[in-house]
Amino acid sequence: MTPPDPGPGPLLEVKGLRKYFPIRKGVFRKVLGHVRAVDDVSFSLDRSETLALVGESGCGKTTTSRCILRALSPTQGRILFRTGEGAVVDVARLPKSQLRPLRRQMQMIFQDPFSSLNPRKTLLDIVGEPLLVNGMRSRRERAERVAELLRLVGLRPEYMRRFPHAFSGGQRQRIGIARALALNPSLVVADEPVSALDVSVQAQILNLMVDLQAQLGLTYLFVAHDLSVVKHVSDRVAVMYVGKIVELAPTERLFDAPRHPYTEALLSAVPKPDPRLRAQRIVLQGEVADPANPPSGCYFHPRCPYAVPICRTERPRLEAVAPGHLVSCHRARELSLRGVGA
Amino acid sequence: MPTDGRPILEVRELRTYFFPEEGTVKAVDGASFEVFPGRTLGIVGESGCGKSVTAKSILRIVERPGRIVGGAIHLRREGGTDPAATIDLATLDPAGLEIRHIRGGDIALVFQEPMTSFSPVHSIGNQMVEMIRVHTRLDKAAARERAVEMLRLVGIPRPDRRIDEYAFQLSGGLRQRAMIALALSCHPRILIADEPTTALDVTTQAQILDLLRHLQAQERMAVVLITHNLGVVAEMCDEVVVMYLGRVVERGPVDAIFHAPKHPYTRALLRSIPSIRASVRTKLPTIAGSIPHPYNRPPGCPFHPRCPDVIRGVCDRSEPGPRPVGPGQTASCFLYEESP
Question: Has UniProt tagged this entry with the keyword Chloroplast (chain A) (predicted)?
């Protein structure tokens, strides 16, 4: 079962997305300022592609993904989604009443397999709920579909009468994936799908996600902080810093030849599992900027080892340095930065 | 790093079991290792392998219904006339004066989550001053001075002002630095760091790891680093202990563990970690199955149901003990029965 062909063009196009959260204080909840969680983010996502959104906590990657699913309403910007019928809708402006048919096509895999499954429901109820909500009334029909889904994610269909507590973390994550796939979505947003799992189980879930993508033609928006995980699953990677995309490139390019100093620092900070590579790590000074009160110019300049005067005053724009490789840095063309070898 | 060849801490056949109503959980079941001054020992393993309970056992802070049921934890005494004199921490009264003096004084602990380790209603400074005054004879003013000094040492900007702030006012990275400052404020000889960077972002993690390494060299501390992150182990440790379901399956020098691992679990674990240096979109080798629930611990070698090299009729019958497999390296596996 593959999702219906929506025709040519990207599946999802995000244009100038902004999400500001008001900071309120006092008895009258006066708005004192805004946290710019997502600040002018644009990207597109082709069918059957995996785009990873990476960055450190507070960079806006999760907020971006929530806006796309309309779990949050964006402050500004357009989220153009191509539906199964071939129409393009702006998710950002759709009234709530029209969201439900769309939500069948966009599903989510959550981070924590322990809190995202209702402990008082059986697998049949958990995985079958989206089917019931969307009109599959016959219990037998639902049971058949649930069995099929469980097999798809590598679980035995006999398990459907059991409760989540009987399963390990990895198995629970498989259940979460089965639930997300119940309605044949075209877009799956996976927010840190393996970061709560043990190393030996992580690999199983990552492989499963890649297999399912090939089998079902799924499109993934993969939100993660772990760059090594990202490398194993994504076609392209967008690096976010304080609400903005600072670099977007095909995975291999981003890892081999990063063009933004923050990407370079991020790559070098990942501990490599080889004691012979205790390399000269780039240790960034200072801390991530406050999105309620970001620095002037380039948000990264106070921590950037390559900053020059213009970085303090002028905000760089996200520009292409090569086909498909976008960087937001004044010095992107002159710096030669260090990536990680294959 | 130079050592005088004698361990500062020696754990022998440690067994810590939990006795809940439903049965017995052998959280740590025969762990042995040594910790040397100025060196870093890494204890790695996945959830339920007993690495944190091992740390808690050393400090005698295992919660009920758990307790140490066997083994010894020898801590070498400081100074004194007899340099070989040791004290067995496993025999001490967990609420007694002696262990309370050792905790924070000789052995300090840094937790994973600094938010829960600091009291939310006392300032960072008050907590540090209290700790310093418990372990030293300094008066209040001198203790506060030392606290400011420690905060400066761990790289907290404006320590004289930060000292009066509360834990929730600091960012994750600064909070972890403050936690380390608190742990080191009485100049412990051993620092146990239980997942010290797991809750932090990678760039902050790099800062904290650098700080730990720097402070260790300066204070010549022994460090026990407990983590599930093999990258952190490779970067920080001199020796490594690999645990699985409460047992040490392999131990050895860090280079041997990563480049000549002998136990099938160590090998499988190393293969299955996603690597930043892997080629794009490659499939990862996996370990079959999942970690068994502690109540359903398999008989024989705890890893045998998932082991690719399992010897039927052997591995499922009895538990292998540690066997030498290289210089300073042992593996608890029947594959090495007849190895030289």
Answer: no
